[in-house]
Input
Amino acid sequence: MAIQDEDRLFVRNGLRHYRRRYSLTEVRVGGLIFVGLALIAAWVAWRGGQADPDLFSAAPGQVQRAVVVVPGEAQGALRAGPAPSAEARASPRGIAPEGLAPEGWTERQVALFGPDNVYEKINGREGYYKSFGFESLTFVALEFSADASVSVDIELYDQGKPENALGAFAGELPPEAAARAHGLGLSYRARNALYLTAGRYYVRVVGSDESKTVQAALDHLGPKLEGALPGEPLPWAYALFSGALQIPPARVSYSAESTFSFGFFDAAWIALLEDAETELFVSRRTDPGAAHKLAAELERGFLEYGEAAKGKGGLEWAKDRYLGRFSAVIARGNMVLGVRGAKSIEAGTAQLQRLEGAAAKAPAQ
Amino acid sequence: MKQAGLVGGLAAGAGWAALAPSDWPLSLKDPTGELGKPKRRQLALPEGGYAVAPSKLHADLGIAHGVDMNAMVRGAIDAIGGIRRFVNPGEIVLIKPNVAFERAAALGATTHPEVLGALIRVVFEAGASEVRVADNPIESPESCFAKSGVQRAAVEAGARVYLPSPGDFELLSTPGAKWIERWPFFWRPFVGVHKVIGVAPVKDHNLCHASMTTKNWYGLLGGRRNQFHQDIHGIITDLARMMRPTFVLLDGTRVLFRSGPTGGSLDDVRSGQTVVASTNSLAADAYGWDALLLRKDKDKPAYLGMATESGLGDWDYSKLVLEEVQLG
Output
């Protein structure tokens, strides 16, 4: 026997069994293993057919949503400016100041949203804020303790830059709204709501009604938010339009992209004059060459909608063939200045001269 | 020889299973992973939807003006034939309001709870055995139903409220639809339903310019439906194809004319003092665009034209019979 065992070691054909036949026990064991494997395979197949369908149908509206901030890339807007502090970013409250609830009110909910999930909060409206460089939304719900049907929602939008925040703010005000400057931003009080900007932040405080209870809460929240959010001085264009030219801040707006429907015209400040037709616009470019190039493109763009007319000093005006109003653009240094929709060349020239004079005194940066 | 044959057979079988293309028998290939998924049920709404037979005896658009919401709901429905034209005794009726946002009713972003309550009561008066109220807001459904006042109004009027949960969605087949030919649909409230009524506010909309009765069906979809915003008019056209309701009610008691669809400021809301009932949701929406959003001088939203061209109705209400009533 010992010799036979030794012989096995030297079998040259490794595929050949050293015995002539399998034992009956081996066949039985093999059969059992085969049956076991078949049972496992059948179980796997059956379980696969009975999988929970929800695994494949997870929908934002169906599942409990995780509240996360995903600071991602915004669409086509200016992106710079002082970032919120690291503490604010990391905080579960986002940028919401502590202790917002007035006396008699309860903070019911705080939720944070980024570009990828903000639609869960404002589905259908998110594109508006994204067009102004949206980075995150911090939502705080306050409830009046004595009556749960009375509530105030605070929406704090981080728009990346003060220009973006002001643009989003101006676009949501009624045309007749008179905004108030509060030092580092603008604010507007509606019947049941408060809108304000502070630096890169645009804040909407929405009351459920216009009751005295809600008004008192808005009175409390306005100064609280203005004081707590990190602000910055108003952008130079406000100094230009509202300071030098005395145009109400609510008539000043910022257009991050496709200004006047020209795809090449971005980062423009626009002021609508009292006649509600004439607009002054200004855009600061990187250098005088870029300003001249943009001015030439705009001139061609205006002429596509009308015919050329010579004005004072040989400046070329474009008369809109449908509206009969006049537009012109000039470059001064690295600034592009213009008038759009003036009722006559004379009126437009006067406005353009005012703008040019004010722009000459505007800060360089 | 026997062993060699067995080994060879097993090897050949394993080779077949491993290498044969996925559509061959016994193949284990699943390059996309789709074959491993369970086959989901695919459901369809009834052929012809939930519409009743057209009638030439009644107006196509019933328009009620006033301040009493209860009277306006009844007046508008009476003008198109009365509730008994649409609901038979013993039937189960599903009502789909717009509860998309966590906003108070006064802000105009959701169906007014008083309008909904009046509609539920009218439906019960026709002998309905059960009235269900359902919507699938992307925001927290519980908060939206509570804060809008819809849940309270529905329950007080005797309806059952269906809030969405993961198991309530089934794959719905909508033949001919561009985006939702097969799409998760809030199915559970539809089980056993005989009639479907939509009741939607009149709202400005940042993307599609106006959200009214046709856009309202968006709230029955599941899945990642925000992707449809890239072709908002296409998806609303699909919604008109998907749902043929018994009738719709356009809640123009107040109009969110700016900053929609979310709104927030009472300055963006004006009183409309109108309720419109119709079996033609495209025409009801066109009327809302002209007479309630006051945008008659502007082009209609593209989805109205697209749905009309697809044969899903006709938005041009000037061709239809309108019955207008002034109530208290």
The radius of gyration of chain A is 34 Å. Chain A touches chain B at residues 17, 48-51, 53-54, 56-63, 65, 119-125, 127-128, 141, 149, 151, 153, 155, 172, 174, 177, 190-193, 195, 204, 206, 208-210 (CB under 8 Å).
